[in-house]
Write a structure and sequence with these properties.
Blueprint lengths: L11 H13 L6 H14 L3 E5 L2 H12 L6 E5 L8 H5 L3 E5 L10 H6 L5 E7 L8 H11 L2 E5 L7 E2 L2 E2 L6 E5 L13 E5 L2 H10 L4 E3 L2 E2 L10 H32 L12 E2 L5 E4 L3 H10 L16 H4 L8 H6 L3 E4 L7 H15 L1
Parallel strand pairs: 2-3, 2-4, 4-5, 5-8
Antiparallel strand pairs: 1-9, 6-7, 6-12, 8-9, 10-11, 13-14
Length: 359
């Protein structure tokens, strides 16, 4: 399509970084992953970062390190990508799904309160689409009930809540560098960040076969390491991240100005910086709308048409309770092209087509 949902960024700097590592012949556990961890931790404002093989394995390490397993319950939204919950479920934990706020598409704080039981061990906040969840009240609830607060930042690199980066509010946070994300490593990759040194150290050990030293394995660990080549690419991408977030915000502003009369456009809560991983509107006659845009060479995406609690894989394990807002919005949401390489003319063209459809 002429107007893709996302576009990859490859420049000479990235090619040189990848080639440099290839020629160094050091492919794991070297200086690039170390530097990427240090630079990413500094960017987010966290004490510790650990590179991982994906966002899913980043979450897995957090759940394992915090003991979200073996019958523990954890609160999570259903309006998210399934990997928010599957790693903990593999270890025997049980998700308790909570509805989202219709404006921000993130956890409804009042609903969270209602779903806490004596078995609850953690709250998982997902900063969906790049908009921060209402993390302060969630932190208060977690503190009040002695629960862990975990942040799924897979879609929200650089998002701000009251001026502070997401990923620094909870006990630990997971980022994804899957190729469509706000920044990538040109492959699968992820990062755990935390301000808790004990948790950080445990995750560091777990992600490399449960060992601190070569021949002694303290925990049943994993190989969830990131390659040096990917870390080198990630370091270059990180240097562009702020400029990309600025451009994503300019594009979103232009879309919203042109579209707010015809569709429901994204809302940004006071004190929040949205990073627009995706620009999601609510569309009437969604299927016809998508077909029309496809005919006009404009891609669309659904994040996500089937909520997690209604997925066949999840229903085999738990009987879902209804989530009215989630079940309503998944029928209306649709994401339109959003990436920093779109020009103002591209955005105006796409927005004009949408206006034309609804008028
Ligand atoms: C909200 C959310 N959580 C977790 C993940 C898992 O990340 P990954 O695809 O890097 O394993 C993703 C991304 O796909 C995501 O969007």
């Amino acid at each position: 399509m002429k107007y893709n949902l996302v576009e990859m960024f490859v420049n000479d700097e990235i090619k040189e970084a990848a080639l440099r590592v290839l020629e160094s012949k050091r492919y794991i556990k070297g200086p690039e992953t170390k530097s990427f961890e240090k630079e990413f931790a500094e960017y987010v404002g966290a004490k510790k970062a650990v590179t991982t093989s994906s966002g899913t394995t980043a979450l897995w390490l957090i759940y394992d390190a915090l003991g979200i397993k073996d019958g523990a319950e954890f609160i999570a939204p259903s309006h998210t990508f399934i990997a928010t919950v599957t790693p903990a479920m593999h270890m025997g934990a049980r998700p308790v799904f909570v509805d989202v706020d219709e404006k921000t598409y993130t956890l409804d704080v009042d609903e969270v309160r209602k779903k806490i039981t004596p078995k609850t061990k953690a709250i998982v906040a997902v900063h969906l689409y790049g908009h921060p969840a209402d993390i302060k009240p969630l932190k208060e609830i977690a503190e009040e009930h002695g629960l862990y607060l975990i942040e799924d930042c897979a879609q929200a690199h650089g998002a701000l809540y009251e001026g502070k980066k997401v990923g620094t509010f909870g006990d630990a946070a997971a980022f994804s560098f899957f190729p469509s994300k706000v920044m990538t490593v040109a492959g699968d990759g992820g990062m755990v960040v935390t301000n808790n040194e004990e948790i950080g150290e445990k995750i560091q050990i777990l992600h490399d076969q449960g060992r601190r030293e070569k021949y002694t394995h303290e925990y049943l660990g994993y190989n969830f390491r990131m390659s040096e080549i990917l870390a080198a690419v990630g370091r270059v991408q990180l240097r562009h991240l702020e400029e990309w977030i600025r451009r994503r915000n300019e594009i979103a502003k232009l879309y919203s100005e042109m579209l707010h009369d015809v569709v429901k456009v994204p809302e940004v809560m006071p004190g929040a910086r949205h990073v627009y991983y995706v620009y999601t509107i609510r569309a009437k006659n969604r299927d016809v709308f998508r077909e029309y845009l496809a005919k006009n060479d404009i891609a669309t995406g659904l994040y996500y048409p089937i909520p997690v609690h209604l997925q066949p894989a999840i229903k085999q394990h738990i009987s879902p309770q209804p989530l009215p807002i989630t079940e309503k919005i998944v029928k209306e949401i649709v994401s339109i092209p959003m990436h920093p390489q779109l020009s103002d003319e591209d955005v105006e063209h796409i927005a004009n087509k949408i206006v034309e459809f609804y008028r």
